[in-house]
Amino acid sequence: MSRKTGVLLLFDVDGTLTNSRKKIEPWMSSFMKKVREKVTCGLVGGSDICKIAEQIGSLEEALSYDYVFAENGLVAYKKNELIAKQSIEKHVGEELLQKLINFALSYMSKLVLPVKRGTFVEYRNGMINLSPVGRSCSQEVRNQFFELDKKENIRLKFVEALKEAFPDSGLCFAIGGQISIDVYPTGWDKTFCLQFVEKDFKEIYFFGDKTMPGGNDHAIYADPRTKGFSVTCPEDTKKQVASLLDIEI
Question: At which positions is Mg(2+) bound (predicted)?
């Protein structure tokens, strides 16, 4: 079966193709194989390649997509080959990184939550991920924090504090997933990946769940180079993609 040319579908992973921090369901994996038979597809996630691979099923399965943009595209793969890799450390310098980490740890130490676990700061190639509850928490604790955050805006207040503390740093702060905040240089949001594909495709569609202002899908969702689709869960993604491509479900 020949695929439609000039069209690219880009998918956020966490909350879009999978439930939060969960592995992709077999029915969704099967559906995406049908989609990839019809059109060129890529993954674009804030997580590193290992976490994306874990959620998609395996590294081999993840890299079977035409494009994989880990860490917003700062680590970029095309047809199973690494084509680009950026470093936040080289870009902003150790001094600013340490000021950011020290401020974040100090801020989070004053938060009183129902539960706190480990890994409050995670260093990645292209960003720093901050989690008030700790990334090593259980799924039950994730869900608990997420519901509390919706009521008390814990992460939104944290983002505002970071913006106030680092106004001219050239850093951006975006809410991502259920429990964390992504910190990266200006322009290193998910639109970063578009430089690798914008000249090769006439139409680029993006599907993501954190598309609201301040969410880590917002920039690429609202970018004029893409046609953005806001989804609520994998089931909603399937429904919207099936409608777009006229796939029977």
Answer: 12, 14, 209, 221, 223, 226
Residue 102 has, within 13 A of its CA and on its CB side, a CA count of 8
> Total structural domains in the chain?
2
CATH at 156: 3.30.1240.20
Catalytic residues: 12, 14
66 is in an annotated binding site: no
Residue type, 190: K
Asked if residue 224 lies in contact with residue 162, where contact means CB atoms within 8 angstroms, the answer is no
The answer to whether the annotation marks 124 as part of a ligand binding site is yes
Please state the pTM of the whole predicted model.
0.87
Q: Print pLDDT tens along the chain (249 aa).
A: 578 999 999 999 999 999 988 999 999 999 999 999 999 999 999 999 999 999 999 999 999 999 999 999 999 999 999 999 999 999 999 999 999 999 999 999 999 999 999 999 999 999 999 999 999 999 999 999 999 999 999 999 999 999 999 999 999 999 988 999 999 999 999 999 999 999 999 999 999 999 999 899 999 999 999 999 999 999 999 999 999 999 987
Tell me whether residue 168 is annotated as binding.
no
Query: Which residues, 6 or more positions from 198, have their beta carbon under 8 angstroms from its beta carbon?
Result: 204, 225
3 labeled binding residue? no
What is the H or E stretch that residue 205 is in?
strand 203-208
Q: Which two tokens stand for residue 140?
A: 């039950």
